[in-house]
From TrEMBL, chain A:
Alphabetic keyword roster: ATP-binding, Cell membrane, Membrane, Nucleotide-binding, Repeat, Sugar transport, Translocase, Transport
Taxon lineage: Bacteria, Bacillati, Bacillota, Clostridia, Lachnospirales
Entry's Gene Ontology molecular function annotations: ATP binding; ATP hydrolysis activity
Protein name: Monosaccharide ABC transporter ATP-binding protein (CUT2 family)
InterPro entries xrefs: AAA+_ATPase, ABC_carbohydrate_import_ATPase, ABC_transporter-like_ATP-bd, ABC_transporter-like_CS, P-loop_NTPase
Biological-process GO terms, alphabetical: monosaccharide transmembrane transport
Automatic annotation (TrEMBL), chain B:
The entry's keywords: Cell membrane, Membrane, Transmembrane, Transmembrane helix
Coiled-coil annotated residue ranges, if any: none
TM regions (residue ranges): 32-50, 62-80, 111-133, 184-203, 234-256, 268-301, 313-333
GO molecular-function term, one example from the UniProt record: transmembrane transporter activity
GO cellular component: plasma membrane
Topological category with respect to the lipid bilayer: Multi-pass membrane protein
InterPro entries: ABC_transp_permease
Localization in the cell: Cell membrane
Source lineage: Bacteria, Bacillati, Bacillota, Clostridia, Lachnospirales
Protein name: Monosaccharide ABC transporter membrane protein (CUT2 family)
Domain of life of the source: Bacteria
């Protein structure tokens, strides 16, 4: 049996309120490419962050090259030859390729930087990988794919033997992917162990030797790719137990309220068509980066639309800015509370009244305090927001209550369509159920509810109809009664083929 | 304890208590009260060093010294609360001073001169706002540019000379902005009070005021809530320019002539008055009552140190230290400890 260069056993890691990894095992051989697979939130990134020393494990053991390492940190990991290439590249865009490669360990010659020597060495490393880049180019001027190659070169220049790549192909074109695969194969033949994280299952057969699957923070299985099929892999990835109870309300489906026709806005929103009827909740499922948030942003008028039509109650409407949408009664509770949803330094009252000042002010623009107080009270009572008083900073509330404020500020005005983007992310189970109930209430009132979520059980549990997105396109639409998790994941990974079958055989 | 038992009998007390509670519930009030306490201590100290500090003549002068700092402080506070900064204030003061004085020495009716001056300053304010809101320039750079431009205009209007005396014809003008008194208070003080009341009302009671706080706290969330962030940003820079313009007119009235370097480094005095009074340079926080206290501390220090016989250099050093310490204290109070450098 070949020797493992990485052995992780019984790894457990919890964050406040979440058990991210539970007794996970993981191993990697020299000279193999291993795909680490799992749905959003399965624990892939957390596991790799533990291996590269970014997070500390709660318990378990880490062995690298047979040696037990107890106090892993990023520096130590680097010394041991573990390198991680993140999805978002970590480079100084204003420096040259060589400067980036030698960042933090610059070579000095009689007190000054030995620029020539570093350029030459960088060139050598790049040549070794058959990467044709001048080491004196500014990194920011290179295309993303080349930048990624520089990052790989940087990792190898510190003698990385264990290379972790997180979604390396998501920003690449097919030609670039092929180049990357050539490099990966070269590294494999030189004895590196490579962990490859990707949602693009169709890529696996081209480079991967073995797959390890995680689900809900637990180790599921490891198999040689030869001995398995894509269908099997998918069924291992899903099949999450639906632990939570989802409150369901059945409603008569009413008339069509809202339509999106042929909406285009950048790379992540391509030819989107959505219909929304009164008395139903439509869930938008998909993997991270499928373009769901971008779609909601384009509909709401935050990002400019290239083409397409928004139709409300049968009439074509113009939505160029959020204020247009709000006036029409289309509202959005955004994904990132802290960034897009709340003014954390302002009071809860201020936050709730902010989008409703048109209702609260007289003609001179003076705020009617009484109306404002009543509105705040109504929102707090309706949503059962728990707070000491409505004057405290919104930032001081718990995640669930913050989310309720973000939603509450929209529900005190009369809306026609409410769009929720990941409304239950990072909040506890009790608060989740309250938000589901709220969505059901809206549905009963005949308000259109559009709901983006990465949690498959939630999508299946709450929506009446499911739209699946992948790569900025709608790849499937299902009625909830007929939908299965396997089917959704199948649609969610229907990437446009970037790699020709057989091109790399 | 007794209060709770005898609820019915103590309604009067409760009313008072409620009023007190309501005032204390205003955001940022706690900090303002702390700083106000510091102001009182300062006054007492200066009074002990030199009892004439409390003479009615000096109090009158002191208030007249505070007034211009308060006026530019209001403008800068508006801008700071949106999370931006206005460095052009001092130059706009100079520009306003030179334009109004030059016009009046040329025999233009003071009323017309004031009107033209206001228009010129408004243009600078709108330009600042456009550069920051529409062209997305960092506010520091945008207003650094307009600061230099406005100073250049101040120099060019009278061919690089200070003006002659604005003459007797402008007596009404000088009385209105500086020498005259209304109900026992100098007019300059009244101007500051009126501006404060108006702008405090706008900031605390109106839709525009809410928008100012909101974009300072989280500009993305504000946009998503339908706030027109560009218009709001332009508004605050216009307010700042109007305030600076007013101070420029006061300066002309004071000296009876136009001086090209009038208002030099006033933008920093304005930042100091705001920040001492609890306005956060990061935006979203602060009230104009704080700016009053901040401007007062500034004025009292200047005036008191002068009375105590401290030379200018020492005054500058002490005031500089007070600005830094007051902000540091604020950070300590808010977070419990000064920011620690990260230990690796």
């Amino acid at each position: 049996m070949e020797k493992y260069i990485v052995e992780l056993e019984h790894i457990t890691k919890s964050f406040p309120g979440v058990l991210a990894l539970n007794d996970v095992a993981f191993n990697l051989k020299a000279g193999e490419v291993l795909a680490l697979l799992g749905e959003n939130g399965a624990g892939k990134s957390t596991l790799m962050k533990i291996l590269s020393g970014v997070y500390e494990k709660d318990s378990g053991s880490i062995k690298i090259f047979g040696k037990e390492i107890d106090d892993m940190n990023p520096k130590k990991a680097q010394e041991l030859g573990v390198a991680i290439i993140h999805q978002e590249l970590n480079m100084c865009a204003h420096l040259t390729v060589a400067q980036n490669i030698f960042l933090g360990r610059e070579k000095i010659h009689s007190g000054v930087l030995a620029a020539k020597k570093m350029n030459m060495e960088a060139k050598k490393i790049l040549d070794n990988l058959n990467i044709n880049i001048d080491p004196e180019t500014i990194v920011g001027d290179l295309p993303v794919s080349k930048q990624q190659m520089v990052e790989i070169a940087k990792a190898l220049s510190i003698n990385a033997k264990i290379l972790i790549m997180d979604e390396p192909t998501s920003a690449l074109t097919s030609k670039e992917i092929n180049d990357l695969f050539v490099i990966i194969k070269k590294l494999r033949s030189e004895g590196c162990g490579i962990v490859y994280i990707s949602h693009r299952l169709e890529e696996l057969e081209h480079i991967v030797d073995r797959v390890t699957i995680l689900r809900d923070g637990e180790y599921i299985t490891s198999m040689d790719l030869q001995e398995t099929t894509l269908a099997k892999i998918i069924s291992h990835m899903v099949g999450r137990e639906i632990k939570e109870k989802f409150p369901r309300v059945d409603c008569e489906r009413g008339e069509k309220i809202f339509e999106v026709r042929n909406l285009n806005a950048g790379k992540m929103v391509r030819d989107i068509n959505i219909d929304l009827y009164a008395g139903e909740i439509v869930g938008i499922a998909g993997l991270m980066g499928a373009g769901r948030t971008e779609t909601t942003r384009a509909i709401f008028g935050i990002d400019p639309k290239e083409s397409g039509e928004i139709i409300l109650d049968g009439k074509s409407v113009k939505v160029e800015k959020p204020i247009d949408a709000i006036k029409l009664g289309i509202v959005l509770a955004p994904e990132d509370r802290k960034k897009d949803g709340l003014c954390t330094k302002l009071s809860i009252r201020d936050n709730i009244s902010l989008p409703n000042l048109d209702v609260l002010c007289n003609k001179l623009g003076v705020v009617n305090k009484k109306k404002e107080k009543d509105m705040t009270k109504k929102a707090v009572d309706d949503l059962r927001i728990k707070l000491p008083n409505s004057e405290v900073d919104a930032g001081s509330l718990s995640g669930g209550n913050q989310q309720k404020v973000v939603i509450g500020k929209w529900l005190v005005r009369n809306s026609r369509v409410v769009i929720f983007d990941e409304p239950t992310r990072g909040i506890d189970v009790a608060a989740k159920v309250e938000i589901y109930n709220l969505m059901n209430e809206l549905k009963q009132q005949g308000i259109g509810v559009l709901f983006v979520s990465s949690e498959m059980p939630e999508v299946l549990g709450i929506s009446d109809r499911i739209i699946v997105m992948c790569d900025g396109r709608i790849t499937g639409e299902l009625r909830t009664e007929e939908a299965t998790q396997d089917e959704i994941l199948q649609y969610a990974t229907s990437f446009e083929k970037k790699v020709d079958n057989g091109a790399n055989a | 304890m007794i209060m709770t038992k005898n609820k019915g009998e103590l309604t009067m007390g409760n009313d008072k208590q409620n009023a007190f509670k309501r005032i204390m519930a205003i955001r940022g009030m706690g900090q303002v009260i702390t700083v106000a306490f510091g102001l009182i201590v300062l006054c007492i100290v200066f009074g002990i060093i030199n009892p004439t500090f409390f003479s009615s003549k000096n109090i009158g002068n002191l208030l007249r010294q505070i007034a211009p700092i308060l006026i530019i402080g209001i403008g800068q506070s508006y801008v700071l609360i949106t999370g931006n900064i206005d460095l052009s204030i001092g130059s706009v003061v100079g520009m306003s001073c030179m334009i109004s004085a030059t016009l009046m020495t040329k025999g233009v009716n003071p009323l017309v001169a004031v009107f033209i001056t206001i228009i010129c300053c408004l243009i600078v304010g709108v330009l600042n706002g456009e550069l920051v809101a529409k062209c997305k320039l960092p506010p520091f750079i945008a207003t650094l540019g307009t600061m230099t431009i406005a100073r250049g205009i101040a120099q060019i209007v009278n061919n690089n000379y200070n003006t002659d005396s604005i003459g007797d014809g402008a007596k009404v003008f000088r009385n209105f902005f500086y020498y005259g008194k209304t109900m026992g208070l100098y007019n300059t003080i009244w101007i500051a009070i009126v501006l404060w009341i108006v702008f405090n009302f706008i900031l605390s009671k109106t839709r525009t005021g809410r928008h100012i706080y909101a974009i300072g706290s989280n500009i993305e969330a504000s946009k998503l809530s339908g706030v027109n962030t560009s218009v709001t940003t332009i508004k605050v820079y216009v307010v700042s320019a109007i305030c600076a313009c007013t101070v420029g007119l006061v300066t002309t009235a004071t000296s009876g002539m136009g001086t090209m370097d009038a208002g030099n480094s006033y933008e920093m005095y304005a930042v100091a008055a705001s920040v001492i009074g609890g306005v956060s340079t990061l935006g979203g926080q602060g009230i104009l009552l704080g700016t009053v206290i901040g401007a007062s501390i500034w004025g009292v220090l200047q005036n008191g140190l002068q009375f105590a016989g401290a030379p200018v250099a020492i005054r500058n050093i002490i005031i500089g230290i007070i600005v830094v310490v007051s902000v540091l204290l604020d950070v300590v109070v808010r977070t419990g400890k000064p920011r620690k450098s990260r230990v690796n």
